[in-house]
Amino acid sequence: MITFFSGPKPFAGHIGLIQDNAVGSWARLGAGVELLLLGDEPGIAEAAARHGARHVPGIPRTAAGTPRLDAMFAAARNAATHPLLCYVNADVILLPDLLARAQEAGARFASFLMVGQRWDLDVRESLGFEGPWQSRLLRELEARGRRHPPGGSDYFVFPRSCVEGMPAFALGRAGWDNWMIYHARRRHWPVIDASQSVTVIHQDHDYAHLPGGRPHYRHPESDRNLELAGGRPAIFALTDADWVDDQAGLRRRPLRLRDLPRRLEASIYLILGPGKAARRARLLMHPSTTLRSLFTRARREDG
Hints:
There is one protein chain. The chain is of the alpha/beta class and 303 residues long. Helices cover 39% and strands 17% of the residues. The chain contains 10 helices and 13 strands. A 5-stranded mixed sheet has the order 3-2-1-4-9, with helices on both faces. It has a 4-stranded mixed sheet with strand order 5-11-7-8. A 4-stranded mixed sheet has the order 6-10-12-13. Helix 2 links the parallel strand 2 and strand 3. Helix 8 packs antiparallel against helix 9 and helix 9 packs across helix 10. The longest helix has 16 residues.
């Protein structure tokens, strides 16, 4: 039914533990699930063997040595045996509710993109996967979990024929996940916000794996991702999804008066497409924010 794929970091220390938790949860989603672990980081081949996944090595890298997402998506498309694909960050725990919602979307639409808001949880031990581990995890989530803001996305479900022609984004840097929503909206695919029907759990971690321990959104490759995406007009969020999957079922997102300004702004960017016209439109609509962003980026490049 569905192929999950990801590009993990090295399996070492706390990052290794939470990645084993994540991949282990995918492997226990049930029948009709295939796992692909992509890349050449230390420990990936061994993790694939532990969890019954296939290891796909040889992913090309950026000039800075970061795995490229366009190559990763292409390799997953070529290796997958199922009609639906799901990219998921390697520190994210999934539960069976995702399968049901993905299956319904796949039965209804030939092309679509499903995304959703995550929960954050500090996890310091192996899940073990013994007994009612999912119930224990959900109790921990209810007691200590935190709802993450809707600015970024940690998983994407889409048919195998979709998301071709991705720019050469750097993995683990900001901007590309926002482009995914923008790209799907530009192609008139339903973008489904499944936040209310799918529980995804991101396990907290630091940024010791990045240069200087800085968060990914302050990394130069995030600036490059933003440039490849088409600039700030292409930064779409979950709130720009035009469909929702919630208690009322899979349906078009209802129009609320408070959402109207952003809907109109997003429509302008979608009509104009990436390029100078969209950037000028954003400058007219958000002059101070746009100029401040340009100034901040210039300072980072000079520093």
